[in-house]
Design brief:
By secondary structure, this protein is an alpha/beta fold. Helices cover 37% and strands 18% of the residues. Strands 1-2-3-4-5-6 form a 6-stranded parallel β-sheet. It is globular. The relative contact order is 0.13.
Length: 149
């Protein structure tokens, strides 16, 4: 088992071109490129395109690259996942995961998108997720789940 330190994690809004460029010069262990809360609904498509371009250009050094997508039940989820599959980040960060079934659905959608080898991180943001923490964590045995946030 290998261990990768994650001492510093920086969220970068996918809709902010200046932040996407500046992140190349920062010494964070993890860069989480956010397509969810940091991006207004009317900017989702633009942010997706800007992020895809920035990640294709690269230059982020040894930083672990994570893309925070919109939740499964949003109209943006499918397009976010499709874009992420094209840029092949180290991990996908999925918000608002409440139960192990959510993890299984996410893993299935990632597999269908061809995201073999991409880790899944999930955000446990709501009380139900805390109550189901054990079952969510146990989903790691059957899915690419690698981190609880």
């Amino acid at each position: 088992m290998s261990f990768r330190p994650r001492r510093s994690v920086l969220y970068v809004p996918g809709s902010n071109a200046r932040a996407l460029d500046k992140a190349r010069d920062l010494a964070a262990d993890v860069l989480i490129f956010d397509l969810e809360d940091a991006v207004a609904p009317e900017q989702k498509e633009m942010a997706r395109q800007a992020l895809a371009g920035a990640l294709a250009r690269g230059g982020y050094g040894d930083c672990e690259i994570v893309v925070r997508i919109n939740a499964l039940d949003t109209p943006w989820f499918a397009d976010d996942l499709k874009m992420a599959a094209q840029v092949a980040p180290d991990a996908i960060l999925a918000p608002k995961v409440d139960r192990a079934q959510d993890v299984a659905r996410l893993a299935g959608r990632m597999a269908a998108a061809g995201m073999k080898g991409v880790a899944l991180w999930v955000m446990m943001e709501q009380p139900l997720a805390v109550l189901n923490a054990q079952e969510i964590a146990q989903a790691a045995a059957r899915t690419p789940l690698a981190a609880l946030v």
